[in-house]
Design goal:
Blueprint: H1 2-10, E1 17-22, E2 24-28, E3 45-49, H2 63-66, E4 80-84, E5 86-89, E6 95-97, E7 113-118, E8 138-141, E9 154-158, E10 168-169, E11 181-186, E12 190-191, E13 205-206, E14 225-226, E15 229-236, E16 255-257, E17 269-272, H3 279-285, H4 299-304
Antiparallel strand pairs: 1-7, 2-3, 3-4, 4-17, 5-6, 5-16, 7-15, 8-17, 9-10, 9-11, 11-15, 12-13, 12-14
The structure holds 2-acetamido-2-deoxy-beta-D-glucopyranose (2 copies).
Length: 328
């Protein structure tokens, strides 16, 4: 299995899923999904996608129509995708932000993530109807407060080189990783078919994901609509922190998410649908993905898309506490 996936990643995949890079749009403390209107939100995020991203993004809006640029290589994808930010914690208690690798899928997108919309698996679309999300749709996966590592779709890979995909772990790697750490977020693939959101941003979805891009299980009657299985891969370049003499003397590992999580169990991701018109549905109805006629843009065009930050604060250099958190 390991060989199969690594080998596949080296060649352009023929069909079965959308896989594309989105560069960094913004790194700031905003969370229009969990903390709408809060400027700033509780913790720092790295955000990719369309420039309609803001502190408030009401579900009645269609950001696919409002946004005017995107950091994604598919130029009709104005969705927003975000996760927490990784920091290194030094022995003296100071923090410094871990850089993200440039996304090399299509050239050098600045930072960002690789985004997937899986129909069934890497090798087949399956025989199921995949329903694209409607405008206004949003969801989260994972819980910063009480993650337990039980969701097989929330994982880390200790990169021996940039192609490493296995093994996956539920917690942060315990030893230095020669080529960095990949954080993986798979979202649920079953929707109730009615609600754009729910109070905890998760109950309108049902998770049958088995992890590692295996085909998800059947959707239950409560959540009968099969939607694309969205996944994020974020490559954190931890390599300049690999000197073991910089690591905690108690044998623990030094990386911490921006909401102060050094186990990694609270890892979470946020998704806000924003493809223009029926572009995503057309892609999902096609059998030869990646050559569906979806519009693309160049790397310089994607990198040029930015937003004016609403929250201006120091997030780089040595910090005595994580942005928004008091010193511990
Ligand atoms: C974000 O919202 C603020 C008001 O809170 C507004 O001034 C600003 O133009 C908005 N930015 C974008 C990109 O829509
Ligand atoms: C804390 O440690 C880091 C890494 O050794 C160092 O660069 C930084 O200057 C230190 N900060 C303080 C406040 O001592």
């Amino acid at each position: 299995m390991k060989f199969f996936l690594s080998a596949l990643a080296l060649v352009a995949p023929a069909q079965g899923y959308l896989r594309f890079g989105c560069g960094t749009l913004s790194v700031q403390r905003l969370d229009p999904l969990v903390e709408p209107g809060a400027i700033p939100s509780a913790h720092l995020h790295q955000i990719v996608g369309g420039n309609a991203f803001n502190a408030t993004m009401d579900p009645s809006r269609d950001i696919g129509n409002e946004a005017t640029c995107t950091t994604c290589s598919f130029s009709e994808d104005f969705s927003n995708y975000w996760t927490a930010v990784l920091y290194f914690k030094a022995q003296n208690g100071s923090y410094i932000r871990v850089p993200q690798y440039p996304n090399a899928l299509l050239g050098d997108l600045q930072g960002g993530m690789t985004i997937y919309y899986i129909q069934e698996s890497f090798s087949t679309n399956g025989n199921q109807k995949i329903t694209a999300f409607p405008p206004g749709f949003r969801m989260t996966v994972g819980n910063p407060g009480n993650g337990d590592g039980a969701n097989p779709g929330l994982r880390y890979t200790c990169l021996q080189n940039v192609m490493t995909r296995f093994p996956e772990t539920a917690e942060f790697p315990k030893a230095p990783c020669p080529a960095g750490i990949m954080a993986i977020h798979h979202f649920p693939a079953c929707w109730d078919g009615k609600n754009l959101d729910s109070a905890n941003h998760q109950d309108h979805m049902y998770n049958t994901v088995k992890g590692a891009f295996q085909p998800a299980g059947a959707c239950p009657a409560s959540h009968p609509v099969r939607v694309p299985q969205v996944a994020y891969e974020t490559m954190w370049d931890t390599t300049k922190f690999n000197d073991k003499s910089l690591w905690p003397t108690d044998g623990s590992q030094p990386f911490v998410w921006s909401y102060e999580d050094s186990t990694g169990y609270g890892t979470h991701g946020d998704y806000l649908f924003g493809w223009k018109g029926d572009a995503l549905q057309r892609a999902m109805d096609s059998t030869a993905l990646l050559s569906t006629g979806l519009a693309t843009q160049s790397v310089p065009q994607a990198n040029a898309c930015k937003i004016q930050p609403s929250v201006v604060e120091e997030i780089d250099g040595w910090l005595s506490s994580l942005p928004g958190r008091s010193a511990m």
